[in-house]
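TICKET #2291
ISSUE: user wants both folds in one file
ATTACHMENT 1:
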Amino acid sequence: MDLRQLTEEVESVSKIYAGRHGIERDGTWFLLKLQEEIGELTQAFLMRSGQSRNKGYSAEELETNFRSELADVFSQVLLLARHHGVDLEAEVERKWLVWLVNDGA
């Protein structure tokens, strides 16, 4: 699966979610939803690493939750980029992968 296809599938799920819960997805919502998911990832990380109470979850549950929150953050980044018309593949190539071509010069 490529990134564009994944983005469109994530968009479909997001539309369903928003429709069911009466959410208007605008630029502010996409950014704030990403922030919310980063907060949840932070909490999952702290619980998994023993730096926060684990709320009675097993090590396996903590690991699953951490992985799930990573997926949520990644999906929200895809949605935010799509909403603003940003080609993430092109931007990663421009910003990151250039280092592989010319040592970042």
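ATTACHMENT 2:
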Amino acid sequence: MRTPVFELHIRPMFRAIDKAHMEFAFDLRDYDDVVANADAILAQLQKDMPPPETGGPWPEEWVTLFRRWKDGARKRLDLGTATFALQRGTTSTTITATGTYPAAEVKGWLELESETDTSKTYVLYFEKPDTPAGSTPEAFTLEDSYPSTDTRSVFIHNSAGTQPLN
């Protein structure tokens, strides 16, 4: 059975209403806040969180998955590092990330993290295997593209922070 990962499995389960109702105490989008409050979150999920008038309780499968993550490794994704390029073509714009994974069997991808009317930010994620292998790290080239009619500024969020991509 695959190990649950915060950014892939846990954070997406928190609905907008869940986040709004808890922001007075902590941020359900923030890994460190969720780890620090995991026992209290699980206790509420097992009772009545959220109450029916604000969206209703989570399905039991979600509660079970949260419990598995909380009681397990509390795995999360790493921010990757790479060299980035932006190629604006006539029909599409392509973002390319090239580099070498930090260890064998690491997987990586570019993901649209956020967007506004004037910009979009992509994040480079790396996921380590549950059981590391002894083989050699591999080189990678990752791409994402979107229509060239989208002329917003592009930013990259990776292990070096967030920077513009021109």
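RESOLUTION: both attachments delivered.
EXTRA DETAIL ON ATTACHMENT 2: The mean pLDDT is 92.
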